[in-house]
Q: What sequence folds into this?
């Protein structure tokens, strides 16, 4: 498969980033429907995949998804990483993405995610084992380094390219920055002169204008949008249209947003079941309602509610009050 043609198609791509507990099948579908180039699965444990853990397998794309199926795996054991990649290939994955950027304590304490940037030999061994285990393309997401004194994305990028990784995504912060401070887009601009494979710029990209500046400073081939898409699944598609066609796509009207929320809620209930779906969708209600009048009270009520009929009725009434307020 020609990854570059499939992902890029002559355009600068805009991906939806993998986000634990967020980029499940319903959210990925929304982002793709709104025009994102691709949407990466939630981070999935290599050990969970190897053990065929039901909860882990639920996070994987299935054959019914019409978009490019990109599965992100995380772990610190090269053999398990290779086996999990092979299992995903058998299940129909189009691309395997390796996580070496997750900064959360639970992940790095297991020497996974961004912790692998402190151990270049192991990081490269994992990447090489995955590349050798599958016939489909392997990509990788990482950060600038562990901290300000250990910024080693350049050396790792070259090593990853040498073992066959086909594309990189760089979150332009160190692990110790977590999500604080400003992402340093310009720092990764030197990658253009050091590697031949494409790379994406990630971090602090919350608007089409941000994306233009990020591409100029990073010299990247494309963009990956993460937290800015929470409550705005249309954002990656807006950015893609602006970058490639110069077209400014306004956000959906509040009426349309309410329709989107309702459809998203139903798809989550169908995917997880009613009890699980209600719990999972509370955070989406919070993100969607951010900035609206009375949102704090709305979130308080929604977060304490269990009855689906009440939740639908209360949410609809909340949004109808927003419609009337702008008339």
A:
């Amino acid at each position: 498969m020609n990854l570059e043609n499939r992902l890029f198609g002559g355009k600068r791509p805009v991906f939806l980033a993998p986000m634990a507990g967020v980029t499940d099948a319903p959210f990925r579908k929304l982002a793709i429907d709104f025009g994102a180039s691709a949407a990466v699965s939630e981070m999935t444990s290599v050990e969970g995949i190897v053990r065929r853990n039901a909860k882990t397998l639920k996070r994987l794309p299935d054959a019914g998804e019409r978009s490019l199926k990109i599965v992100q795996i995380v772990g610190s054991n090269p053999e398990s990483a290779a086996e999990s990649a092979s299992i995903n290939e058998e299940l129909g994955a189009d691309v395997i993405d390796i996580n070496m950027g997750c900064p959360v304590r639970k992940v790095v304490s297991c020497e996974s995610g961004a912790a692998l940037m402190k151990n270049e030999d192991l990081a490269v061994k994992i990447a090489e084992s995955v590349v050798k285990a599958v016939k489909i393309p392997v990509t990788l997401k990482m950060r600038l380094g562990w901290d300000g004194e250990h910024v080693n994305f350049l050396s790792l990028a070259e090593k990853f390219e040498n073992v066959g990784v086909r594309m990189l995504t760089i979150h332009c912060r160190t692990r110790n920055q977590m999500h604080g401070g400003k992402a340093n887009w310009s720092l990764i601009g030197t990658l253009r002169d050091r590697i031949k494979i494409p790379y994406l710029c990630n971090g602090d990209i919350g608007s089409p204008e941000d994306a233009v500046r990020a591409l100029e400073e990073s010299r990247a081939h494309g963009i990956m949008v993460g937290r800015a898409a929470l409550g705005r699944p249309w954002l990656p598609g807006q950015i893609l249209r602006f970058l490639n066609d110069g077209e400014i796509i306004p956000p959906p009207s509040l009426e349309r947003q309410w329709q989107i929320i309702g459809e998203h809620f139903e798809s989550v209930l169908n995917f997880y079941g009613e009890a699980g779906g209600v719990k999972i969708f509370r955070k989406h209600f919070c993100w969607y309602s951010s900035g609206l009048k009375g949102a704090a009270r709305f979130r308080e009520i929604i977060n304490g509610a269990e009855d689906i009929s009440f939740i639908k009725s209360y949410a609809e009434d909340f949004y109808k009050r927003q419609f009337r307020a702008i008339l």
Remarks:
- The chain has 14 helices and eight strands.
- The beta strands are 14-16, 38-45, 70-74, 95-100, 138-143, 167-171, 199-202, 222-225.
